[in-house]
Amino acid sequence: MSSSNTILPASPNPICTHTVELNSDPLDFEDFLLETHTETASTTLSPVNGGCSWAWEVPGNSACVDYMLQTNEGYAKTMEGEDSKIAFRTKSGVEVMDDGYKWRKYGKKKIKNNPNPRHYYRCSMQGCKVKKKVEREREDVKFVITTYEGKHNHEP
DNA sequence: CGCATTTGACCTGCGC
DNA sequence: GCGCAGGTCAAATGCG
């Protein structure tokens, strides 16, 4: 684990067990992988925010799904086929982070048990069906939950 | 003027 | 079958 980064205690959110501090050096993701998910060797980490935030990317791998369901923790859960789902929790003053892609907002929704609305974004690139959801954590608005769905079919 | 955002309405899946 | 909650649509509005 890179000493310059801070992994905070588990979130109550079952799909977000750790927090990555923004504006820190990129994580040593190989150490991170070993430390947190030794049983899911096929899982890979990918940069999702221009190098200052990292998240699990779980390819279509049923073993990963089983593991996360059993332990009720983990960063992400997979979907069938080519879809992938990435969820992570960041400490940030703004919901929208520049991850290199261009997003178009298409919806906002008040969520039950959370006074903060959830925002829905779609990749604005033609033919790219990637979506993301952004919402602030209920107990601590300093934290933002971001969920990516799908894979980009183009470069940032 | 063209494109992005806002926001209420509508759609859909799920639990009871 | 019904109601609720989450997700998406699309018309209106704003902005460069």
What are the SSEs and their pairings?
Layout: E1 7-8, E2 19-21, H1 29-36, E3 44-47, E4 54-57, H2 62-71, E5 85-91, E6 103-111, E7 114-123, E8 131-136, E9 143-149
Parallel strand pairs: 2-5
Antiparallel strand pairs: 1-2, 3-4, 5-9, 6-7, 7-8, 8-9
The protein binds a DNA duplex (16 and 16 nucleotides) through residues 104-109, 111-112, 118, 120, 124, 133.
Your description of this structure?
It is built from 2 helices and 9 strands; from the N terminus they run E-E-H-E-E-H-E-E-E-E-E. The chain has 156 residues and is mainly β. The chain is elongated and about 35 Å long. The two termini are 27 Å apart. The structure holds a DNA duplex (16 and 16 nucleotides).
List its salient traits.
156 residues; 2 helices; elongated; seven-stranded mixed beta sheet; 12% helix; two-stranded antiparallel ribbon; 9 strands; DNA-binding; mainly beta
Main sheet record: 7 strands, mixed
Cα distance spanning the termini: 27 Å
Strand order of the largest sheet: 1-2-5-9-8-7-6
Give the overall form.
Answer: elongated
Number of helices: 2
Total beta strands:
9
Helix content: 10-25%
- Indicate the low-confidence ranges by residue numbers: 1-83
Pfam families: WRKY
Protein name: WRKY domain-containing protein
GO molecular function, one term: sequence-specific DNA binding
Keywords: DNA-binding, Nucleus, Transcription, Transcription regulation
